[in-house]
Amino acid sequence: MARQRFGTWRSPIEASDLATLGTTVDNILVDPADGEVYIIEERPAEGGRNEVVHLASHKDVLGQAWNARSRVHEYGGASALAYDGFIYFSHVLDGCIYRHSKSEIVPVTTENPNLRYADFAIHPVHKHLLVCIKEDHTNDAPTDVKNSLILVDTRDQRSHGLVSGADFYSYPRFSSDGQFLAWRQWNHPDMPWEASEVYVAACQVHQDGITLSSSIIVAGKCGKDVATEPLWISAHQLLVVSDISGYLNPYLATVSCSKSQMDVGAVHVETEPLFHDGMEEDFGEPSWMLGWSSYAALDENHVVLTSFRSGRAQIYVYDLRSKASEEINTPFAVIQYVHSLKNGKVVFLGKASDREPAVVEFDGTVFKPLTKSKDPLYSVGYISQPQPMSPADETGNTYHAILYGPTNPSYEGGEGDERPPAVVYVHGGPTWLTDQALDWKKQYFTSRGWAWVDVNYGGSSGYGKAYRERLKGRWGVLDITDTVTAVHLLASQGIIDGKRTVIRGQSAGGFTTLGAVSTFPDAFAAGGSLYGVSDLRKLNAMTHKFEKYFCETLVGGLPEEIPQVWKERSPISKADRIKAPLLIMQGSLDRVVPPKQAEEIVRIIQAKGGKVRYVVMEDEGHGWKKSKNIQRALEEELIFYEEVFGFI
Asked: Where are the transmembrane segments (predicted)?
């Protein structure tokens, strides 16, 4: 093996390969009638189109004319349902719900471009009745968009409102006998991972549809506690997770309603925790998208639960009779989209740190890949393994980061006592997290002799409620200081070259990137902001309904209450302090962070004589979905950083 300057190693990992790497699994569908498994694939090579694929035959179900994607809450998710041999899906191009059968695809709602639908449930007895989220953009101002749960008669396209009054809804779920409907709802100013409620109501089916009795709260509390992911495991038993203990933990609700009471709609619920002593793990993910599923019934007496602990997935088999659980050793860093099969097994998407994601069947003991086992696109010798770290800052508070060292089988190191340059990645949200699953984008850099550092700063999910809430009122401060502290620590330990460190992030991570290079002008040698926020005040004034009040929570008050704080936290107000060369990339159709956010800070930096490269991705929104743009973005970034450090 040779020695060569870090950052200049030759690598076979090319952006063109990563852009056409294949597909991303957007969700898993299981038809409860026949147990058939489908996956929703997001395909960059087809312009980001979502296709439903029958897993056993590997055949496309819909065809290229269809795109099973939703724009509810702007981020989408839960765009399709498999039930009784049919596929129900939202077609993003016209917003309609369609039903696919073996012979035809027919609309079950009338066309209206102002309406968006997602998160479907079919009544188990009256199978022509479908419940889902409707998001009405007839008046598109964030305060005027209306969300509700509706009932659709799939025979004649008639629909009517079922539940309304709250700002948001998700997870409509019928009990196995159809007597009850559960759902989740929340209201502004809360985000769903801050506070939300799970309700249940009795269903009365009649000629005109369904009437719900007076609903009752199962778990959660507006403004205080989270409840999410309602899942019926029997006709009268409902699983939910709630963070009332400080972590998202599972609870079992027993729901009852006598016949005499059914006439007046009285429903009773008794709820108890599965883990009476609590678990310092999060059994669920932040609901940026719809359709997350973290647990499922294995059989009538056992459930499979998944969680995050220390930044990695854990899996448990829980016995409902003995109330005992068994932790199963898992090779997966991330487990998502857990669903029951008919044969006493569950299926999920498993993501490891050293191999491609796979759809996996689990019987409580053995993991069996259902998708053809794929070797990594490149030799495992090019895969840098995650090294999680949880150091304390100067105040004694722990923060979390993940280090990936330079890795290439053709090289043993740099020149002399050289330390590697580093890419420091700040995730979006800002309450999301960066996991430890294999990401070829990271390997694209590490195989060229770069270190890569993921920072899960205070405010990130997966580490409990208190850790996530650290960011309240401190966005634009804590995220930056945790990131800078992580860099200083790694540099002081001789792990990275602190003078050759770049910071990058997308969306809220782009905000942290811009904030870091303007608050600490000498901390980073370069920065890369992908559709990042530069002006919090304008973002708050222009943002969509889902995040309408999110900024106020994160900054600590209304703009008119603390105008100086809003100004100081906005990178655009400090843009004249930026010394580091910046690469800024932006989607031309972005509704979440509009292009003006990028254009204005670029103009200020250019006027001050700073170095900035501005790249606009045409026909892209909040993130890149098309192969050509995924490739271009990676290549632009690498070349920009290489130019800054004189590698080319």
From this structure: none
